[in-house]
Write a structure and sequence with these properties.
- This protein is mainly beta.
- It is 7% helix and 47% strand.
- The chain has 3 helices and 17 strands.
- The protein has a 17-stranded mixed beta sheet that branches.
- The longest helix has 9 residues.
Length: 317
Amino acid sequence: MGARTLNTGPPAIVPRRMMVSLSAALMFWGAWAAPGRAGPPVPGDAAPPSARATPGGSPGRACAGIRALQVASPPAPLRSGEELGWRLTVAGAYVGKLETKVGRPREVNGRTLLPLFGRARTTALVASIKPFVGRYMTMVDPADLRPIGLQTELTYGDDPRWEKVRFRKEQRQVEARFFAAGKKGRRGYLTDHGATDLLTLLYTARRIRISKGDSACQDVFGARRLWRMTGRVTGTTEVSTPVGKKTAHRLELRFVRKPHPSLRRHDPPTYDLVAFVSKDAYRTPLRFEVKLSGITAVGHLDRWTFSGSDEDWAMFD
């Protein structure tokens, strides 16, 4: 699929919280990684010396995680070089771009790992108000897509943020170091099933069998916090794409922040997301919608290729 140019009218002035949440809808959530060309997260890195691992609590009933669900037969292809791109709109105005990529397998400490990349940016007109750029990389086991570690970075105006995260003990322990609002911090969680991150969740979900009425839950780490995602498949619908209408599953997802001693305990933030996933062997997210503070942000798939290059993806590669 090739990108197309759309006349969407004058750009909306996008609140900071919405722009961060819009890009995070599939993966970012405003927590990003170490600036510069730091090395990739690898198994065996030392844990933050005083990180406090805290049980993440369990909003709602016990959760086994999406890996307990049936894998589709065959699972969606996961090819190095696949790139997906979504144009981001608010009130019909084009405000930015969100992209993901499957990298090349690499050997790390004698172990083969697969890098998954993501990046987001505002358009020039929106960036003239406050530029927004974010990049993300997670390293996963190519056999089952269990995350080993991730690094992210974000700049919104003159506010840089970064994050380094390690998943240990079969992904049931999450340790994060981060920089936000001009301060460094660290946070740890213990989970009752293997946690994942937002980008890895996208690719793991593409391997799961999807049918109307199915439901799932999963602990997901993003933006220095652990979230309990619950979701269900509500039916199918037609979605417009650059190559015509496609039949898609409709998934309704909710993310609720899990408790931690360093966070306020009352009224935890909640994000609702509706995703439309193609009803074919690829199970590709064709469209997603996020509602926040009365504003609806939408991501429309407008680019998909299996022959992407490594140009401009050199955050850690």
